[in-house]
Amino acid sequence: MIPTRIRMLPRRGIAWVVIVLVAFEIQTCLSQINRASFPKGFVFGTASSAFQYEGAVKEDGRGPSVWDKFSHTLGKIIDFSNADVTVDQFHLFDEDIKLMKDMGMDAYRFSISWSRIYPNGTGKINQAGVDHYNKFINALLAQGIEPYVTLFHWDLPQALHDRYNGWLSSEIIKDFATFAETCFQNYGDRVKNWITFNEPHTVAIQGYDVGLQAPGRCSILLHLFCRAGNSATEPYIVAHNMLLSHGAAADIFRKKYKAKQQGSLGISLDVMWFEPATNSTNDIEAAQRAQDFQLGWFIEPLILGDYPISMRNRVGDRLPKFTKNDAALVKGSLDFVGINHYTTYYARSNDSLLRDLVGKVLNDSLADSGALTLPFGKKLKPIGDRANSIWLYIVPQGMRSLMNYIRQKYGNPPVIITENGMDDPNNALTSIKDALKDGKRIKYHNDYLTNLLASIKEDGCNVKGYFVWSLLDNWEWAAGYTARFGLYFVDYKDKLKRYPKDSVQWFKKFLTSS
Length: 514
Fold this sequence. Notes:
- The protein is built from 20 helices and 17 strands.
- By secondary structure, the protein is of the alpha/beta class.
- It has a single domain, classed as TIM Barrel, CATH 3.20.20.80.
- The protein has an eight-stranded parallel β-barrel, surrounded by six helices. Strands 6-8-9 form a three-stranded mixed beta sheet.
- The chain starts with a helix and ends with a helix.
- The relative contact order is 0.13.
- Belongs to the glycosyl hydrolase 1 family.
């Protein structure tokens, strides 16, 4: 019932009161946490990637990547855009670093473009590319921002894909190791935190199973969507070669650079949390398999030395085997585990008939887990409120559940949340003024951070940092410019001007309060 005083207001006044009440409700629903709530030394930062941020794709000798080719292929990007310019951080990094500093962020996670250092993937070093990242790193440190550097964030040099099919060939292991060592040599005196790969699971599935991302290989539905590929085998080969490449880079780092440079090295894995759709044994087991085929696929070789037993049993000979030397190279090759966590889904067991049918029709690795993962439960009720992206449902408690799962199953390794965030739509009809009002994003980060804090303080999870995806709105892969994940709004129509959303002020207060 509307109070009498409000009922007497003119319509315009009522609208204003409603807005105030909604804003008040959002603020009062937020938990009272801030930087001081977290352990001393806990790192807060924002995250990005070279291809999504830099632009300048043909400047200073950079060679093309598989994403350059993919994004210029008709029909691959939903809004027909490309990342030739994107937010132009290549030229505007000084401005962006000031934004980080003003917010009170401790660190910035970015990636180095492999083809900017080695335009052909290997061979002659492009000194102009090396110099660019030296300037960037020095500028970060000058403002007190700690660099966290990712070596591979999806932008494989096109030359290596053309030469030997990239991640499908074991030849790439030595080439990646060479690239990694070049980075250790040139930047390791200042970069103390390295991430070898960003989301190898996404690369394997989206790039080589369903073909929705570069290089766009698949065999589902009789090659209806892709000209080449094998969705039942290639994802496993790609993942295996990435794990061995990580191991090779980690081996070089530990033998030649770690002690001298006092650095650490990890990997960033994309991980959903999965809740059983029902309390049935079948669905509980399906949720475990779903986790095995996502997180376990990568973390178990890196911590335990082999793939999960459920994968071995269900994939059989299509799953590559580690030699004794390979297992020794990969096992224990992490100083920390990076986790990119956004959402939680339900997991339901596929009955054998459906699984066999899906396997025969799609002929892909996704059918191997025997788990159907969806954001809908009984009567198609969503698991949580949805952000803009069709896959991103807001389920903050999934963060705490996931941290505890890692603690209990894998011996509580050091964890850094290397990505967490949500997006708004890029709506041409929305004014910039209205687009800056992102109360939903504020609540998202507040609630996920509250659950993360509980996992640390109450449960004993060994979490060391949290990186927001992302500092700026940017080019979001196959979604192009349709999704805005940034704390800062980027005006793509007016010289890429950056405008702080309300979440910037929230983080500034969060990071400076005691």
